[in-house]
Specification:
- The protein contains 11 helices and no strands.
- With 275 residues, it is mainly α.
- The radius of gyration is 22 Å and the shape is elongated.
């Protein structure tokens, strides 16, 4: 019964995520017009056959901007996650292998500092130094988003580095590269995959929130967070402005949470590890 619930969560999450990804990837085919095509005669129109999500204050089609904006949000989130994951897993494995050394001590203190510093404040500092923009935002994200992957990778390696298979590889003279990529990395994939799924949802929310505050994608580039920010001035008179980007943000994060919960039960043999 429990196995069926796990499979159901993964299936529902995967179905929702496929819907979002296919919709965003198929924007040129699904959208009826260009995302920046303005028509002052159709400003702030509500739902219609021509404009399924209505139009914004410039007469631009919200459905089209939502799909094209998803490209910016999702590609940025996946790129930032990939870079943070690669950096964090590598540093975490090295720290776990060389625990209680100077490298491990320095790395853990850096992690403590980054975890104590609110990400929103850090992003604002980056924006103040280099100006707002998507590139600056992704730089700030990658600078701190490797931390959870380093922590969990280090924790798992500390648990398994004395396993018989790892010790046997050392005795047989296997290189450190072979031990890392053939023995340690495969055993961390389960925990990292679960964490990455949840972190991706949080990352999408964070990028959207910072774009909402004007620190991310800049107009006229469509992005879910900046679209929500643009709609807030007309929310009470024209609530349909929020529908498209809000719907896709909710569906994407909900899908990733479903997948993460299912994967946690299926793949993560170290669920009880305390960081």
């Amino acid at each position: 019964m429990r196995k069926g619930k796990r499979s159901a969560k993964i299936f529902v999450g995967a179905a929702l995520l496929c819907f979002v990804v296919v919709s965003v990837a198929g924007a040129p085919l699904l959208a009826g017009c260009a995302p920046d095509a303005a028509d002052s005669a159709q400003r702030l129109e509500s739902f219609s056959a021509l404009h399924p999500f209505g139009t914004d204050r410039f007469g631009r089609d919200i459905f089209s901007r939502t799909l094209y904006g998803g490209r910016v949000t999702l590609v940025s989130s996946f790129a930032a996650l990939g870079m943070g994951l690669a950096i964090g897993v590598l540093l975490g494995i090295v720290a776990g292998l060389h625990s209680q050394t100077a490298f491990d001590t320095i790395l853990m203190r850096v992690i403590d500092v980054l975890m104590a510093f609110p990400f929103l404040v850090f992003a604002m500092v980056v924006a103040a130094l280099w100006g707002p923009g998507l590139t600056q935002l992704l730089t700030a994200v990658v600078a701190v988003w490797w931390v959870p992957f380093a922590r969990i990778s280090r924790s798992v390696v500390l648990q398994i580095k004395n396993d018989p298979s790892v010790l046997a590889a050392r005795v047989l003279g296997a290189s450190w590269r072979r031990i890392v990529f053939c023995e340690l990395l495969p055993k961390t994939i389960g925990s990292v995959a679960v964490l990455a799924t949840f972190e991706l949802g949080t990352l999408i929310l964070s990028i959207s929130a910072l774009s909402f505050l004007g620190l991310g994608a800049q107009p006229p580039l469509p992005e879910w967070g900046s679209m929500l920010s643009d709609a807030r001035a007309h929310f009470f008179q024209h609530p349909h402005l929020l529908f498209g980007p809000a719907l896709f943000v909710v569906l994407t994060v909900l899908a990733l949470n479903f997948i993460g919960e299912g994967l946690r039960d299926v793949l993560d043999p170290y669920e009880g590890v305390r960081l």
